[in-house]
Design brief:
The chain is α/β, with parallel strands linked by helices and about 220 residues long. Helices cover about 35% and strands about 20% of the residues. It is built from eight helices and eight strands. Helix 1 packs across helix 2, helix 6 packs across helix 7 and helix 7 runs parallel beside helix 8. The protein is globular and about 50 Å long.
C-alpha cells in the first residue's frame, strides 16, 4: 500500500469509543467502514455494533446489494463478482438516503442481507428501527468516485478505512473462500485474481477516508 504513513494503529476499544461519539439519541448518524477484500470490515462492524448494543447501533452491510448471479451471468460478468459494477449502487445509495432521513416516528426500514453460503442477497432481512441512532454500514466501495457511490458517501457522516497488513488480508481471503466451499486452487484464483484487482482500486480511495486505521 502507498498509504502506510497515514495509518493509525488502534485498538478495538478506541474504535468503539469513536463510534460511541457518533451516537446521539433522537438523531440519525451513519458510520461507514471500508477497505480491501479481507480487511476485516464485517468483523469490525459486527464488533462495534455488539459493543454499542442494539438500542444504539444496527449493521447494514453494502454486500446486500450484490447483483444476483443470474443477472451477472446474463451480463457476462459472473467471473467478476465483487467488482464495483457488479453491485446495485443506485439501490444502495437510495437505502442510505432513506436511513439518513429516517426519524424516530417513521416506520421500520428493511435492508437486504448477502448470504455467502449461497452467494446471493436476501431482501428485507435487516430491520432498522427508527429509534436506533447509529447505522453502521460496511463495504468495499464507499469512497469510490463514480456512478452512485458518491451519492451514498454524501449521506455517511464518517468513513473509516481499514488497512491491515497485506499478508494478513490475503490469509483471511484464502480461509474465507475455502470455508465457503472453494478448493484451495479456486480460493487462490479468487484471492489473487479478482479480489486483488478490486483491492488495488479500493486502496486508491483511502485518501478520502476520515480515518485510516490498522487494528492491533
Amino acid at each position: 500500500m502507498t498509504i502506510e504513513q497515514d495509518v493509525q494503529d488502534v485498538t478495538l476499544d478506541q474504535l468503539v469509543e469513536w463510534a460511541n461519539a457518533l451516537v446521539v439519541p433522537g438523531e440519525r448518524r451513519i458510520l461507514g467502514l471500508t477497505g480491501a477484500p479481507g480487511a476485516g470490515k464485517s468483523t469490525v462492524a459486527e464488533q462495534l455494533v455488539t459493543a454499542l448494543g442494539p438500542d444504539a447501533a444496527v449493521l447494514v452491510p453494502m454486500d446486500g446489494f450484490h447483483l444476483a448471479n443470474e443477472v451477472l451471468i446474463e451480463m457476462g460478468i459472473r467471473d467478476r463478482k465483487g467488482a464495483y459494477d457488479t453491485f446495485d449502487d443506485g439501490g444502495y445509495a437510495r437505502l442510505i438516503a432513506t436511513l439518513r432521513a429516517q426519524r424516530v416516528d417513521d416506520p421500520v426500514v428493511y435492508a437486504p442481507r448477502f448470504r455467502r453460503e449461497i452467494e446471493e442477497s436476501i431482501g428485507s432481512s435487516i430491520p432498522v428501527p427508527p429509534t436506533v441512532p447509529l447505522v453502521v454500514t460496511e463495504g468495499n466501495y464507499l469512497l469510490l468516485e463514480c456512478d452512485a457511490w458518491p451519492a451514498a458517501r454524501s449521506r455517511i457522516d464518517e468513513v473509516w478505512f481499514l488497512a491491515p497488513d497485506t499478508d494478513v488480508r490475503h490469509a483471511r481471503l484464502l480461509r474465507r473462500h475455502e470455508a465457503h466451499g472453494k478448493s484451495p486452487q479456486d480460493a487462490a484464483f479468487w484471492a489473487y485474481g479478482s479480489d486483488e484487482r478490486n483491492a488495488q482500486l479500493i486502496e486508491s480511495t483511502a485518501g478520502r477516508a476520515d480515518r485510516i486505521v490498522c487494528l492491533r
